[in-house]
Amino acid sequence: MPDEKRAAFADYVRAQGERQVRLAWLITRNWEDARDAVQEAFTSLLPRWARLPLGVKLESYVSRSVVNASLTLVKRRSRTTPVSDPAELMGGATPDSFDEVIDADLLWRLCSELSPIQRAALALRFYRDLTFADIAVILGCTESTARSHVRRAVVALRRRVAEEAM
Amino acid sequence: MMDDFEKAIRDAFRRVDQIPLPVPAPDPDQIGTPSYSESRPRFRDTRRWLGVAASIVLVVGVGVAIGSRQYIASVVPAVPAQTGEPSTPVGQEIVGPIWQVKSIHGVPIVLGDERTRVPYVQLKPHSEMAGDGGCNALNGAYELVGSQLTIVNLATTLSLCPGTVGEQETDFILALSQTRSARQTDSTLEFLDRLGVVVITFVAAPPSSSPR
Q1: Interface predicted TM-score (ipTM)
Q2: Which of A25, A46, A121, B175 could form an SS bridge with B199, CB 3.0 to 4.6 Å?
Q3: Any bridge partners for residue B128, and if so which?
Q4: b/e per residue A34-45 (b: at least 16 CB within 10 A)
Q5: pLDDT (tens digit, 9 = 90+) per residue, A31-78?
Q6: What are the chain A neighbours of B117 within 8 Å (beta carbons)?
């Protein structure tokens, strides 16, 4: 690969790496797995980097690899992953605004009960703010299926939050 | 439009941006073509060089011995290793299935803890190759013309892979880069180096296996 292409790839990894790890973590709920998933995605991207067609939606392309690798890791490990609590990781500093609407920690914990594909759909919708069409491309499904994943996940969360409140 | 509940989900998810990454961010220098996949592989240690030197002495010695008996008048072609099963040249049928490694240089593979996997390769359409070395994912390209097979542009993740499994993975990647042809028996796929020696033996993965 020419040096300038390799340099562009390195710049892309530096710019996007952390963001992609966070996306992978929302699916795997395990930082090591998240990093592995992103490493795999970038590794598969490298041989193709020099011949990516112009105008390719690079972020969708990489996100798709990251999501697929994350789902594969979750499936392969088939282990119950302890849910990392963001409040705990932040040293207990929970922004007050979340408490006003709904218990964000509870929501966060309940997300772990969703299927990995539903977590992926929610992450793409609410963390990445993607359209259902973009989510469908990344998940490799139809737009209606992507919409269905998100809707079912939200419904399941609503029900569980209501149950917890009783 | 998002309702309040969906906004709460969005806010909860975005809290992840406030968490300092507890793992190192991906390093572009850690993602790349390993040196051992270059067209002229570098050998890892002196033992390998001694092995090569011994092989050269053996081949030259055999050649001289045969030549002196006038059995042949020119170059002696390399004789592929025998497997005991009739072998056939490969074709496009090796493209698609997942081939799990059975042995490397005749040594059966070993498996480590639950984080390691059975090494495999999958030759995909459009000359792309995917696989796993046991600890690290592999990607690359291949050229298949008749039974002539070469694997190029190998890239791997670089997760720490200590001990026997790590050495095995290195041997696997080195053997892939040495591959020049392939052949099939009823039950196995074999990759051979330029001397016609079997470097990797594969078996087809069970249908339930799922590659990444």
Answers
A1: 0.77
A2: B175
A3: B141
A4: bbbbbbbbbbbb
A5: 888 888 898 888 888 888 877 766 667 888 888 989 998 998 888 765
A6: 76
Tens-place pLDDT, residues B113-131? 666 688 999 998 888 889 9
Whose CA is closest to A50, among A83, A18, A102, A3? A3
Residue whose token pair is 């772990």: A112
Chain A contacts of B16, Cβ < 8 Å?
A: 22, 25-26, 86, 127
Q: Do A37 and A28 form a contact (C-beta atoms < 8 A)?
A: yes
Chain B CB contacts of A11 below 8 Å: 28
Please name the amino acid found at residue B5.
F
Nearest CB to B140 within list A47, A89, A95: A47
Q: b vs e for B128-153, b when ≥16 Cβ sit within 10 Å of the residue's Cβ?
A: bbbbbbbbbbbbbbbebeebebbbbb
State the pairing for strand pair B88-89/B107-108. Answer: unpaired
Does the structure show a pLDDT above 60 at B209? Answer: no
